[in-house]
Amino acid sequence: MVEPVERDSRGILHPKAGLRRFELTRFPPSPGVDRFVDRYWLVSWDLPDVYEQHVLVHPVVNVVFDDVGTVTGVRTERFTRRLSGRGRALGVMFRPGGFRPFLGRPLSTITDTVRPVAEEFPALHPAEPAVIAALKDDTDGAEIAKLVDAALAPLVPDERQPSEDTTALAELAARDRNLRRVEDLAARGGLSVRQLQRAFADHVGVSPKWVLRRYRIYDAAERAARAESVDWAALAADLGYADQAHLTREFTAVVGEPPGRYARHS
């Protein structure tokens, strides 16, 4: 089930402020395509000035259509999207490792890159003009998502892909908060730590340690954005940090501001 942004805003920093300036709607992929695609998302805005939205991406590839079509690899650092005037963008958020069968080479080769769909996903490129035209014509977002889904469906491989086992482990790391160490995740997959690291580099584009850390930061940011007050020491313990200071250092390094300040402005 695709959760609405009101229930899951992970990755959107200061979501309350952002959602006052843009609208974000999500749509599910069709059966079969959902082996590799997590969701489609449509963001629309109409602003009198420039708004900067800071984002911490999931460990996934996004294919984004606005004025052009691009393939965005996993971004390991916070990035900023500048919105101004009136516009819309449609994104395909793949599952962790979900883009590997379509790229045909390790996802680590496109980590922290943004490249044209024509170069990195040429099989989808023929659909690009119709999708961009639909965005400019104010076609309903669900219909645009169906257009992209229909283009993806015949590209989905019939046979199970090696990356799908890694997808399962990455998604397990996202939902099981008792998994705090790479060794624990490797054991759940019946792999050595080195085998897990190689699989994540190839199929996801980042390390399993990075994935585990990213979801802990998501948890902390979501709690800060939704709670009136946060017991940071208790939260640090819940998330497996050695102490509150460790959480504070990591949160500040990743998000760009200390957790207490983030909470006050969320």
From TrEMBL:
Coiled coil: none annotated. It comes from the Bacteria. SMART domains: HTH_ARAC. The keyword Repressor does not apply. PROSITE patterns: HTH_ARAC_FAMILY_2. Pfam families: DUF6597 (PF20240), HTH_18 (PF12833). Residues 164-265 form the HTH araC/xylS-type domain. The keyword Zinc does not apply. Transmembrane segments: none annotated. Keywords: DNA-binding, Transcription, Transcription regulation. This is AraC family transcriptional regulator. It comes from Amycolatopsis deserti. The lineage of its organism: Bacteria, Bacillati, Actinomycetota, Actinomycetes, Pseudonocardiales.
